[in-house]
Each structure stands twice: as structure tokens, then as C-alpha cells.
Design a protein that fits this description.
The protein has ten helices and four strands. The radius of gyration is 32 Å and the shape is rod-shaped. The chain has helices at residues 7-11, 24-57, 70-81, 94-105, 132-142, 152-194, 196-204, 209-248, 254-258, 264-294, and strands at residues 59-64, 86-91, 118-124, 147-149. It folds into two domains: 14-53 and 155-294, no CATH class; 66-145, no CATH class.
């Protein structure tokens, strides 16, 4: 067999100039955009749930019927202050309760004529091992209609839902990476099909497989990096826009809560760029090597 002539000839191989996979950057950019938003969503969702868990784990609310006597009310306050794990007890004034109910009932409703219960805000030590079962029994003996809102069962349900969403986002990111690899493999197969005679000739002339594959692999790397950069920039713009929109639509915007200065919100879109480029290059390289190995 005739040996492959020179390093200059390797650089001039025609296999690096094909445009059969010109669709690849657009497909990859869209998938990277979705993956970057999903990765950011994982960070935001985790932070939001952790903050809610810490906040609710330290807060309890006791509702006392509006017609309870002042003596019983003071007895309840004394009982709460003596309970193990209760850090502070605050009896909300009627004006404070009215401010809490105004968004729900409106400013035109006269709360003085409604049987609004007295609210007692409790701050508990999450590690204080407060026995809420015993506390409820003691409260029932003083004010049978008093209701202690324990957020733990609700928080467990929210946590389970949050974990399901996190698993869905993680699965979405994995699916996007798989689709990127499949797109690069498909582009490599299209390239081989379009240039099969020239590739077979190069093989017969003694060209090494790695020299034939290198131009396509490097092109896949460049296109992958470029497309991923476009998708990541679009994702960052979306993140900033959503963080600003959360103020106007009165949402508990998690990105606003985490803060745009949070480095993780920027690392996720940035990290996916090299991952995408390397994945596209590796997929194209493996596919080309397999196709070349099948040639006579």
C-alpha cells in the first residue's frame, strides 16, 4: 500500500469541508437552551425547598377561638412558654391579624364584626424535640377548639413533589445530552454516506483512520461549542428576564430569592458548553471510526 504522504496532506484532507450536518448547530443550540434552563431549575428548586423547610421547621401557628376569655388566653401563653423547644411566643394584635387577612378579604371588609381567631406565632427549635402530641393535649384541656398548625405533614408532601420534579429535570438533562450525542452520530453517518467513495480511496491509499477522523471530530467540537454557547447565552437571558418578571407578577420568584449573584446560576449554563462540545466530538469520532472499520 502507498503510505500517507505528509502532515501537510493530512491538513488538506477534503473530509473537513463537508456541510452535510449544517443543521446540527441549530438543533444543539435548542437542546442546550433546554438543558441549561433545566439545570438552573434544579438549583432554584433545591434552594427554594431548603429555604421553605428551614423556615417552616422553625415556625408554628396556634389559632385560638375569638371568644376565648382573657384568662384562658394568658394560660395558653404561659403553657406555650413553658413547653420544651419553644423559643418565643408572640400573640398577634388584631391589627396585625387584619394586615394578614387583608389580601384575602380585601380592605372593605370590617374584621371587627367577624369571628376572627386570635393567632399566636411560635418559634420553635427544630432540634429541640418538641412533643406536639403532648402540647395538643394540654391545649385541649385549656381551650378545646384551639388549633395548632403543624407544617410537617404538608412540608413532607411538598418535599415529595419537589423531589419528583427534580428527578424529572435530571431525566430531561440526561435526555438532552443523549440527543446531542445522537445528533452528532447522525451527522457523522450522513457525512460518511455522502463521501464514501473518497473515504474508501483514502483508506486504500493507506491513510490512518485517526487522520481521516480528526477533521470531522474537530469540526464537531467547534460546532458543538458554538451552538452550546448560543444556547447558553439564550438561557442566561431567559433567567435574567424571569427574575425581573417575578417582581411584576408578584410571584415568590425563586431566582430572585437565590439572587442573580449566586455563582451556581451562571456555572450551570457555562459548564454545559464544554460538555456539549466534547460530547459532540466524541460521538462523531466513535461513529466515524466504526464506519471506517466496516470499509474494505
Amino acid at each position: 500500500m502507498i503510505g500517507f504522504p505528509s502532515r501537510r496532506a493530512r491538513r488538506d484532507l477534503p473530509v473537513g469541508q463537508d456541510r452535510s450536518a449544517s443543521f446540527l448547530p441549530w438543533v444543539v443550540a435548542l437542546m442546550v437552551y433546554v438543558a441549561a434552563l433545566a439545570g438552573t431549575g434544579l438549583v432554584v428548586l433545591g434552594d427554594t425547598f431548603d429555604a421553605a423547610e428551614r423556615s417552616l421547621a422553625e415556625t408554628e401557628t396556634l389559632q385560638v377561638p375569638a371568644d376565648v376569655s382573657q384568662a384562658r388566653l394568658q394560660t395558653i401563653l404561659a403553657l406555650l412558654r413553658q413547653t420544651r423547644g419553644v423559643v418565643s411566643v408572640h400573640l398577634l394584635e388584631p391589627a396585625e391579624t387584619a394586615r394578614l387577612l387583608r389580601p384575602w378579604l380585601g380592605a372593605s371588609v370590617a374584621l371587627d364584626h367577624l369571628p376572627v381567631p386570635r393567632l399566636i406565632d411560635l418559634r420553635v427549635d427544630p432540634y429541640g424535640a418538641t412533643d406536639f402530641t403532648v402540647l395538643r393535649q394540654h391545649l385541649a384541656s385549656v381551650a378545646p377548639q384551639a388549633k395548632l398548625d403543624d407544617h410537617r405533614s404538608w412540608l413532607a408532601e411538598v418535599g415529595a413533589a419537589a423531589h419528583r420534579v427534580e428527578r424529572m429535570l435530571a431525566a430531561l438533562i440526561a435526555a438532552v445530552l443523549l440527543l446531542i450525542a445522537l445528533s452528532a452520530m447522525f451527522a457523522a453517518r450522513v457525512f460518511v454516506a455522502a463521501h464514501r467513495p473518497a473515504l474508501e480511496l483514502l483508506v486504500l491509499l493507506g491513510a490512518a483512520d485517526r487522520d481521516i477522523v480528526r477533521p470531522l471530530a474537530m469540526r464537531s467540537l467547534r460546532l458543538g461549542l458554538l451552538a452550546a454557547g448560543v444556547g447558553s447565552v439564550a438561557a442566561v437571558v431567559t433567567i435574567v428576564a424571569l427574575s425581573e418578571a417575578g417582581v411584576f407578577i408578584a410571584l415568590a420568584a425563586p431566582i430572585k430569592g437565590a439572587g442573580l449573584s449566586d455563582w451556581r446560576l451562571w456555572v450551570v449554563p457555562a459548564a454545559i458548553v464544554p460538555v456539549t462540545g466534547l460530547l459532540a466530538m466524541a460521538s462523531a469520532r466513535v461513529t466515524m471510526l466504526r464506519r471506517l472499520a466496516e470499509m474494505p
